[in-house]
Design a protein that fits this description.
By secondary structure, this protein is α+β, with helices and mostly antiparallel strands. It has one domain: Roll (Pnp Oxidase, Chain A), CATH 2.30.110.10. It is 28% helix and 37% strand. The protein is built from 3 helices and 5 strands; from the N terminus they run ββαββααβ. The longest helix is centred in the middle third of the chain and has 14 residues. It starts with 5 loop residues before the first strand and ends with a strand.
């Protein structure tokens, strides 16, 4: 497990995460697509776990390809703001060999702290 920033689409029940192609997390998801996303609340006690099968986008090869465009969408949704320099962001996505890991929820469980 590692801490990640994610973008959640309630309509499709899908979480999207920016990952680098050469890291263990990405290689593990490519080898065995069964993944879990643990989401903590600010109260420390409440949490949700999203389980599903991972799907990986193509690795960004050009600052303006479809994979880079999706990473821009993920950033906007996850950060809730615009980046200061989109061209720099897109170049970084290429140099870091980033791609999007998508997890469509097949099972969600957790615990909520009651008032």
């Amino acid at each position: 497990m590692s801490n990640v920033i994610y973008a959640w689409d309630p309509g499709t029940q899908t979480a999207r995460v920016s990952v680098t192609s050469d890291r263990a997390k990405t290689r593990n998801a490519a080898r065995d697509p069964r993944v879990s996303l643990h989401v903590s609340a600010t109260d420390f006690w409440s949490y949700a776990v999203v389980e599903g099968d991972a799907e990986l986008s193509a690795v960004v090869a050009d600052p303006h390809d479809a994979a880079a465009d999706e990473l821009v969408e993920v950033f906007r949704q996850a950060a809730g703001k615009e980046h200061d320099d989109w061209e720099d962001f897109r170049r970084a996505m290429v140099s870091e060999r980033r791609q999007v890991l998508r997890v469509r929820a097949t099972n969600v469980y957790g615990m909520a702290q009651l008032p």
